[in-house]
Specification:
The structure is a single chain. The protein is an alpha/beta fold and 388 residues long. It has 2 domains: 36-108, Ribosomal Protein S8, Chain: A, domain 1; 113-383, Dihydropteroate synthase-like (TIM Barrel), CATH 3.20.20.20. It contains 15 helices and 13 strands. The chain has helices at 12-20, 25-35, 47-60, 77-80, 97-108, 148-161, 182-199, 211-220, 236-244, 269-286, 306-314, 317-320, 334-340, 348-360, 371-383; strands at 37-43, 63-67, 70-76, 113-116, 119-122, 127-133, 165-169, 204-207, 224-227, 247-251, 294-297, 327-328, 365-368. Helix 1 packs across helix 2 (25-35), helix 6 (148-161) packs across helix 7 (182-199) and helix 8 runs parallel beside helix 9. It starts with 11 loop residues before the first helix and ends in a 5-residue tail after the last helix.
């Protein structure tokens, strides 16, 4: 008899073991997902629901930790899955089925593509988003691109280095940054977007919180709206994104760049960010933004301390479990400096490592300054996975 321990951090090792023993690709993948460990936190449950869950778990071989109004359920996915079925779960737990069903579906069938305006980006391989800031005061590259021509040339280089989307921003959102007037922001970003589009360089995203800026950028050739406020700053931005059929990146942030550092208070950062981002995505969908056009960004560095950012990176799978593609913006952030001791101009290596860790935890889009270095790190990270 021979006993071998298999890696358990992803379903891939089990899938590979089954495939090597004759299983076909899709059945092997679903079986691997089914026996992978799953831990689910359930909140806002009644005492009757909590008691029913404890009794069900005792019969099902699932571990449960409970307290007033909450329960933590742990076990293989296949053992927990019956709770998502009305015909197999206790009647007292019927309220749990829809939310758990959505979570399990996202786990088994993650998004494979992102629909943007006029195109679709495959998520089977890492999507690197090249940062193109045309601002005088961004935290790491403010003033580095003094003209539209310089920005267009830099954008062309980023695409040549391997990015698949260019993100053009005309307003700094670093902590304490002041707002930029709409006309000034348009004057910064539109000539760059138009110049890139004329060269056929893209697709292009506009990094803005303002509907008027986004409209001008879309008219100039942008295909994506990247909003750090998650469509909260300007109510007109949701309808614009919907009607233009643009891709949208909805980021988590509390407050504004001027106030966010005072709002970095969490009991459990990953769970709270996931809840707030999930509500943001639901609002967008209710307003008519198609689900396949939405990407979520947990907002590293926005209303989060260095410790909270590191915890959020480690628990990124909690955000991925919402069922939307996840983008991360780690590039040169302060928490990387806190971990490595490196100054802002020397954090690209740490950024690349962070992106590789994020890929392993389920992120598929990566917004960075140094595209070439990140591409190498992600090439290695993605080569270790082999989705069906």
């Amino acid at each position: 008899m021979k006993v071998t321990a298999l890696a358990a951090q992803t379903p891939e090792a089990v899938r590979a073991a089954l495939a090597a023993r004759g299983w076909e690709g899709q059945p092997a993948w679903f079986a691997a997902v089914g026996i992978q460990a799953l831990v689910v936190l359930i909140e806002d449950i009644t005492e009757a629901e909590r008691e029913a869950l404890v009794h069900w778990a005792a019969k099902s071989g699932v571990d449960v930790l409970t307290g007033t109004g909450w329960a933590l359920v742990a076990g293989s996915t296949s053992r927990i899955a019956p709770l998502a079925r009305y015909d197999r779960a206790p009647a007292e737990l019927a309220r749990l089925a829809p939310a758990l069903g959505r979570l399990l579906a996202a786990r088994a069938e993650p998004a494979r593509a992102w629909a943007i305006r006029g195109a679709e980006l495959s998520l089977e391989t890492p999507v690197i988003i090249g940062i193109l800031n045309v601002t005088p005061d961004s935290f790491s590259d403010g003033g580095h691109l003094p003209s539209a021509d310089a920005a267009i040339e830099h954008g062309s280089r980023l695409m040549a280095d391997g990015c698949r989307l260019l993100d053009v921003g005309g307003e700094s959102t670093r902590p304490g940054a002041a707002a930029v007037p709409v006309k000034e922001e348009i004057a910064r970003v539109v000539p760059v977007i138009a110049g890139l589009a004329k060269r056929g360089v893209g697709p292009i995203s506009v990094d803005t919180r303002k509907a008027e800026v986004a409209r001008a950028a879309l008219d100039a050739g942008a295909a994506v709206i990247n909003d750090v406020s998650g469509l909260r700053f300007d109510t007109g931005l949701t309808a614009l994104a919907r009607d233009a059929q643009a891709g949208v990146i909805l980021m988590h942030m509390r407050g504004t760049p001027d106030t966010m550092d005072d709002l970095a208070t969490y009991g459990h950062v990953a769970a709270e960010v996931a809840a707030e981002l999930g509500a943001t995505a639901e609002r967008a969908e209710r307003a008519g933004v198609a689900r396949e056009r939405i990407v979520l960004d947990p907002g590293f560095g926005f209303a989060k301390t260095a410790t909270q950012n590191l915890r959020l990176l480690d628990e990124l799978a909690t955000i991925v479990a919402l069922g939307y593609p996840v983008a991360v913006g780690l590039s040169r952030k302060r928490f990387l400096g806190a971990a490595t001791g490196r100054p802002v101009e020397d954090r690209d290596r740490a950024t690349a490592v962070g992106c590789a860790l994020a890929w392993e935890r389920g992120a598929r889009l990566f917004r960075v300054h140094d595209v070439a270095l990140t591409r190498e790190a992600l090439a290695l990270a993605s080569a270790t996975t082999n989705p069906p």
